[in-house]
Design goal:
The complex is a heterodimer.
Chain A: H1 2-19, H2 26-32, H3 34-39, H4 44-72, H5 83-117, H6 126-145, H7 173-201, H8 214-245, H9 259-292, H10 300-313, H11 329-357, H12 366-389, H13 391-397, H14 401-431, E1 433-434, H15 437-463, H16 480-510, E2 512-513, H17 548-554, E3 569-571, H18 577-593, H19 597-616, E4 622-624
Antiparallel strand pairs in A: 1-2, 3-4
Chain B: H1 2-10, H2 22-52, H3 62-65, H4 68-93, H5 97-127, H6 136-169, H7 176-206
Classes of the chains: A mainly alpha, B mainly alpha.
């Protein structure tokens, strides 16, 4: 408690030092700061950028963790990071990459692009949107602070009981995991609800469901998956938290608990999670491939159908992570067949992308390179996925590097390549400049070849019996060469990321002006000036078909059709409460990690106080008058 | 939205003030999705309870513990509160702020009585050796019922705040969706209680 007060005073002190002492104007000066503008922003484009900044930071952290593990495995009997530290690295790498990288960077692109694509001025709940991003950032921060205070979680990203209980994971590590993920998960759930309502209620006139761009469609289905997948995780984390903090017996065998329960609950969340982080990427690829092939997306309706079907089947296959538990041949067979069935809609998608390119005028920009590279990588990951769905084979593959190779192929191939494709594609709309294409291509080739070199050999390592999550291997088992190659691949990927970072810095310093429509785009966002103005559309557009901007350019007068006359635009006011509320959750989480109930309760009190303030607050927003709209181009 | 604002000020409140603005519509739709998420949360917890309720580890079993008359009373109280919240919403639709606030006040009063009965019940159980740490049955029982109970508590505090707002402002297109959504929430925790009554108490008596 005392520590907390000291910390708060210290932060106010720092604020004073950096801005020039305490005086009457202290608060006023704080509010004029650019940082304050970002903290209180409710603009979906800025929130999207915040998501990507946060995700990017954690990507660096998680990437370094992976690099350390690969360096350890470079040679047999290596002594770089061994034992417990290695366990912490592998747990944090998985947790970070899934929860704090894949989802946030995609949520960032969704936040940025979806309201623009459906012709809306903002999301349905700007306040909740801001709350979502701050909860994610504080939750992620909490998980990662474990490195500094008390040791990181070391029970794997799946945190199977009993390994994750106090008996085998003493120390606060798993507490950080449990509390941090609950906070971040709450934020994700809110974003999911926000997107669902935004897409249902805020579409521009004429934008029927079957005229929505595919990225909007995948965002829609992803949000539905978030809605039904995250509550089970919350419930499971709640039980694990009670077992660790309050000595309950959900998973402890001595008290009559049930180990399989955690596995079921975790994978009922965990499998839909896989689709949560890959479906938005599918949407990005659909946009990119269609734009750079200069063709309408092939089989749009079947794409939508396949997306919905994948979303549905995502909840029907969780037991394929548990084939070795021994649930019996009937259960295993049912889930194996359901798993293989997912290959059908996924196959439909792959063929549709190929047929979109077929006969198109393909421009291999960096975004398009990432998209076409994805098809190769993802199909390979999909093939090993079907192999893993075969139960007798899975009994051999389970917990070997074959599995590691499989899910890195789908996750890097899907999510990470998808994010890069989306970033190169939408960057001009975010910042008004073009990312350097030459550096972009270097980035792509280094990263793409690096990822194959890292993970292709791991298939064979797995088939030779090398188990995952083990920090070393012996020499003389034919594992040396492939491990060495794998580590060299990881270094190549790192080089690719460094080129990418250099590209970002160069572009931000002196990027080439992009203009409103650098790619000859098809969807509504390309009708706006770059960067997009904070009110998005001066006049709400009227949509006449799929790819509305393309229609207006080539079958209309080249201007975006408006659905309303110019008038005052209503905007939501900035809000500081989301930040304070998330801070409350963060403080509370920190308290509970260290069994300090008083700090825990204090944080929650802040949260509830904020909710009350928010409920009583009148938020009329403000209006932008037509005279203030500069550069009305639409 | 502007047209709707004018309607609200010039011609009094529209017939369904909670759906008069886009904000209100968004709020209601978003809340339905939130309840879908909550349903999944409770479904997971029911699954947990069904998996663990047999593990009493020598402690008291459900048949020995549960007092149906007490639980039936709680059920009756909570179900009645659902009815009173409907009457509150009817008051809103009649543009009668006093009627609305009165029925919502009765609703949270009944909610508070329910909470009191539940606390009394838990204290009784604790005396008989049935606590959250006594066995997996105890852990799952208290987590499921505690989650529901804290939802009731949250609802009581929330609606209390809304009543204060209603007394200050009357019914507006701005606060009508809040009352409407709160009544949805109240029905939802009632529905969960019906499942708890069936799955935990009634099924607990036969097994």
């Amino acid at each position: 408690m005392a520590t907390l007060i000291i910390l708060i005073v210290f932060i106010m002190f720092l604020g004073a030092i950096f801005t020039g002492g305490y005086n009457k104007k202290y608060l006023q000066r704080m509010q004029d700061n650019w940082l304050w503008e970002w903290i209180t922003t409710v603009d979906h484009k800025r929130i999207g950028i915040l998501y990507m900044l946060g995700g990017g930071f954690f990507f660096a952290v998680g990437g370094l963790e992976a690099l350390l593990m690969r360096l350890q495995l470079m040679f047999p009997d290596n002594q770089l990071v061994v034992g417990d530290i290695y366990n912490q690295l592998l747990s944090m790498h998985g947790t970070t990459m899934i929860f704090l990288v894949s989802m946030p960077v995609l949520l960032g692109l969704m936040n940025f692009a979806v309201p623009l694509q459906i012709g809306a001025r903002d999301v349905a709940f700007p306040f909740v949107n801001s709350l979502g991003v701050w909860l994610f950032l504080f939750g992620g921060l909490l998980v990662n602070l474990s490195w500094l205070f008390g040791g990181a979680p070391d029970a794997g990203w799946t945190s199977y009981a009993t390994l994750s209980l106090n008996e085998f994971s003493p120390g606060p590590g798993v507490n950080y995991y449990v509390l941090g993920l609950q906070i971040a998960g709450l934020g994700t759930l809110m974003s999911g609800i926000n997107f669902l309502v935004t897409i249902i209620n805020m579409r521009a006139p004429g934008m029927t469901y079957l005229r929505m761009p595919l990225f909007t469609w995948t965002t829609f289905v992803t949000s539905a998956l978030i809605l039904f997948a995250f509550p089970p995780l919350t419930a499971g984390l709640f039980m694990l938290m009670f077992d660790r903090l309050f000595d309950t017996h959900f998973f402890t065998l001595a008290g009559g608990g049930n180990l399989t329960l955690w596995q079921h609950i975790f994978w009922i969340f965990g499998h839909p999670e896989v689709y949560i982080i890959v479906l938005p990427a599918f949407g990005i690829f659909s946009e990119v491939i269609s734009t750079f092939s200069k063709k309408r997306l092939f089989g749009y309706n079947s794409m939508v159908f396949a997306t919905v079907l994948i979303g549905f089947l995502a909840f029907m296959v969780w037991v394929h992570h548990m084939f070795t538990v021994g649930l019996g041949p009937i259960a295993n067979t049912v889930f194996a067949i359901a798993t293989m069935a997912i290959a059908v809609p996924t196959g439909i998608k792959v063929f549709n992308w190929l047929f979109t390119m077929w006969g198109g005028r393909i421009r291999f920009t960096t975004a398009m390179l990432f998209a076409s590279g994805f098809i190769v990588v993802f199909v390979m990951g999909g093939v090993t996925g079907v192999q893993l769905a075969v139960v007798p084979a899975d009994l051999q593959f389970h917990d070997t590097y074959f599995v590691v190779a499989h899910f890195h192929y789908v996750m890097i191939g899907g999510t990470i390549l998808g994010f890069f494709a989306g970033l190169y594609y939408w960057w001009p709309k975010m910042f008004g400049t073009l990312l350097n294409e030459k550096l972009g291509k270097a980035h792509f080739w280094l990263f793409f070849l690096g990822q194959h070199l890292t993970f292709f050999p791991q298939h064979f390592l797995g088939l030779m019996g090398m188990p995952r999550r083990v920090y070393t291997y012996m020499s003389g088992r034919n594992l040396e060469l492939l491990n060495l190659l794998s580590t060299i691949g990881a270094l190549l990927m790192t080089a690719g990321i460094l080129v990418f970072l250099y590209n970002l810095v160069q572009t931000l310093r002196m990027g080439k002006e992009a203009g409103p429509d650098p790619w000859n785009g098809r969807t509504l966002e390309w009708a706006l000036p770059s960067p997009a103005p904070h009110y998005n559309f001066a006049q709400t557009p009227r949509v006449r078909g799929l790819d509305p901007w393309w229609l207006d350019k080539y079958e209309g007068d080249g201007k975006l059709q408006a659905a309303e006359p110019l008038g005052p635009i209503h905007m939501p006011s900035p809000a500081y409460l989301p930040f304070v509320m998330s801070l409350g959750f963060f403080v509370s989480g920190f308290g509970f990690v260290f069994h300090s109930w008083r700090v825990g309760a204090l944080g929650l009190l802040v949260v509830f106080a904020c909710m009350y303030i928010r409920s009583f607050e009148e938020d009329p927003g403000y209006h932008i008058e037509p005279e203030e709209l500069k550069g009305v181009e639409s | 939205m502007k047209v709707e604002d004018q309607q609200a000020t010039v011609a009094g409140l529209p017939a369904e003030p909670e759906k008069a603005t886009l904000e209100g519509k968004n709020k209601i739709l978003g809340f339905w999705f939130f309840m879908a998420a909550e349903t999944t949360l409770f479904a997971t917890m029911f699954g947990m309870y069904l998996a663990l309720r047999g593990s009493t580890m020598g402690g008291p079993t459900p048949q020995e513990l549960f007092q149906l008359p007490l639980v039936a009373t709680s059920t009756l109280v909570l179900l009645t509160s659902s009815l009173t919240s409907v009457l509150g919403i009817m008051g809103m639709h009649e543009n009668d702020a006093n009627k609305m606030l009165k029925w919502f006040a009765i609703t949270i009063l009944l909610g508070a009585i329910f909470l009191g009965l539940e606390v009394y019940e838990f204290i009784e159980y604790a005396h008989e050796g049935h606590t959250i740490t006594s066995s997996a049955f105890g852990s799952s029982f208290y987590l499921l019922l505690g989650t529901h109970g804290s939802h009731v508590l949250f609802g009581v505090l929330w609606i209390l705040g809304l009543i204060i707002q209603g007394r200050q402002q009357g019914i507006t297109v701005h606060n009508a969706p809040k009352f409407y959504v709160a009544s949805l929430y109240w029905h939802f925790i009632d529905l969960v209680w019906i499942f708890i009554f069936t799955v935990v108490y009634l099924m607990g008596m036969i097994h």
